[in-house]
Every structure is written in C-alpha cells, then in structure tokens.
Write a structure and sequence with these properties.
The chain has 156 residues and is mainly beta. It has one domain. It is built from 1 helix and 12 strands. A hairpin with a 2-residue loop joins strand 5 and strand 6.
C-alpha cells in the first residue's frame, strides 16, 4: 500500500511541536469562507503553519495531505482564541484515510487535558482546510471525508 505522509519542516519532531501549549489560532481565508491555511500560535511568537496539498491516487480520486512548517513571523491573519485548556500540554493524533490502495495522513486532532479537541483536516474543497473545535470560526467547507472514516493514530 502506498503511504502519503505529512510534510514537516521544523527544528524538532512534529509530535513534540504539536504537543506544546497554544495561545491562539490564526486563519488565512480564501474566497467564500474557505480556510487556505492556519497557524497554531504559541507564546513567544513561534507557531506551526498548516496547509493542504492534493495527491492523485486513482482516476478522479485524490487525497489531501497536510503540510506543516515552523514559523517565527508576526504576520497576523484573522485570530481566534482557543479553549484555555490548550495553554497546557496537548496530546496530538493524526487522522489517516484510506482511498484506492493509498493511505494519506490527512488531518490532526489536538486534545487538551480537559478533553476538548481541535480538528484540522483536508477539506472537501481541494487545497483547503476544515477546522473544528474553534469557537466563532465559521466556514463553508466540510472535511474531505466524514470524520468517522478516518483512523486516529498516535503521532510519532
């Protein structure tokens, strides 16, 4: 089986970076309330920027896979406060989808100590994201697949 993995460019493991406390989430919007990328912002000005890239897996079938990058910029998109529980250590997991003989790492779930979850996954509209669990964030897309179709795995 072919496996399409997350793309990561950062100073330490992606699991370690996604476990760190978060201050807020910033969003870059495209037309019609579609999220083109998000940045998980932390105290001290660093963050993890996330966007989706599409991969053809069969005729007229594709899977969105997340790309992550470590950022230190102060460029501000629209910001959303996160549940205060995310200001402590977070438990990250990846969401994996299987399609046409290919597995794709298509999303993440960040779980706070109180059980609150933040979901970021490739959307049904190519190259965009669905973000769940953020109060006040209204978007016009849904996940690429139903969330119960993804396999939740430890992020290691």
């Amino acid at each position: 089986m072919k496996v399409l993995t997350f793309k990561w460019n950062g100073p330490s493991s992606l699991a370690d970076e996604l476990s760190m406390p978060l201050s807020y989430l910033s969003v870059e919007w495209a037309d019609h309330a579609k999220v083109s990328q998000v940045t998980l912002r932390r105290q001290g000005g660093t963050g993890i920027r996330i966007h989706s890239a599409m991969h053809d897996v069969a005729e007229r079938r594709e899977i969105g896979v997340l790309h992550f990058s470590f950022v230190t910029d102060t460029f501000e998109e629209e910001s959303f406060d996160l549940n205060g529980a995310f200001q402590q250590t977070i438990t990250p997991a990846k969401l994996v989808i299987q399609e046409s003989g290919t597995e794709g790492e298509s999303g993440i779930v960040l779980k706070a100590h109180n059980g609150h979850e933040l979901v970021i996954v490739a959307s049904s509209f190519p190259y965009f994201l669905y973000v769940g669990g953020v109060h006040g964030l209204k978007q016009s897309v849904v996940p690429e697949y139903s969330l119960d179709e993804y396999r939740r795995c430890d992020l290691s």
